[in-house]
Design a protein that fits this description.
Blueprint (H helix, E strand, L loop, with lengths): L7 H10 L8 E5 L2 H15 L2 H4 L1 E5 L3 H14 L3 E5 L8 H9 L3 E3 L5 H5 L8 H5 L7 H12 L6 H8 L3 H10 L10 H9 L8 H13 L3 H18 L11
Parallel strand pairs: 1-2, 1-3, 3-4
Length: about 250
């Protein structure tokens, strides 16, 4: 008696792209590819086999589209959850959705996932944050940082020396695609700087990489207050008992 009409204006686009969202036992709408990869890694620790649980993660297609999809699912009475950024937009709509979903909606206090998670890493472990475990993107990431500092030497030692105490902020901006407030930058410069984020964590695989580093580099205790209630809300919806922590 709780199911209603799924308005095509809210779900039509997604119905064509990922119809399994509407057929799964529990759909989790992730704002983008980063959130999808991040959630996949973390939720496997908290829920086990997602397919066996009937859990389906879906890319919401960005902030606005994800909001429309979540509102459409809420109106239709389906069981779902969400992991989204906080861009300071739609100030009335997000609280309404949060009121309906409770802990089933995780929205970072401010900014995107990278802006929330990367500052939690210890300064002494920033090289490990930069380093690509597959060895394919490390050089691109260093070059990205060097370009932002306007230096030619793209070694980590030189970058750390020039950036000083702002190194972590520099990494956050690079990984998030944020452009510096510099009037001398051309449109092409800004486009290139924003595009560098694809070599960081702005992909599904990048989201998994960042999530793995959260556990490998001892960041999980700092992130746990945000994420564990979300996991336990999912477990409760799936008929599972809450857990006190995730195994690292």
């Amino acid at each position: 008696g709780k199911l209603g009409i799924l308005a095509s204006s809210n779900i039509g686009r997604h119905l064509k792209m990922d119809p399994e969202t509407f057929l799964s036992r529990m759909a989790i709408v992730c704002e983008g590819a980063t959130e999808l990869g991040f959630a996949d890694f973390v939720l496997k620790k908290g829920l086990g086999d997602l397919l066996a649980q009937g859990v389906h993660l879906t890319d919401g297609g960005g902030h606005t589209c994800a909001l429309q999809l979540l509102e459409g699912l809420a109106a239709g009475g389906l069981t779902f959850a969400g992991m989204v950024d906080n861009e300071g937009q739609f100030s009335g709509r997000w609280p309404n959705l949060k009121q309906k979903l409770g802990d089933l909606l995780i929205q970072w206090p401010s900014g995107c996932l990278e802006e929330h998670v990367i500052p939690l890493f210890d300064d002494a472990k920033l090289w490990e944050v930069i380093e690509d475990p597959d060895g394919e993107k490390t050089g691109m990431r260093l070059r990205c940082l060097a370009e932002r500092l306007r230096i030619n030497d793209a070694t980590f030692q030189r970058i750390r020396e020039v950036a000083g105490p702002n190194l972590k902020e520099l990494i956050v901006d690079a990984a998030s695609g944020n452009c510096p407030d510099d009037p001398s930058l051309t449109t092409d410069d800004r486009k290139r700087m924003k595009g560098w984020c694809k070599s960081w964590f702005k992909t599904e695989e990048g989201g998994r990489e960042l999530a793995k580093k959260v556990f490998d580099l001892d960041v999980w205790p700092n992130l746990r207050p945000n994420v564990l209630p979300f996991i336990n809300a999912l477990r409760q919806s799936l008929g599972e008992t809450p857990i006190g922590d995730l195994s690292e």
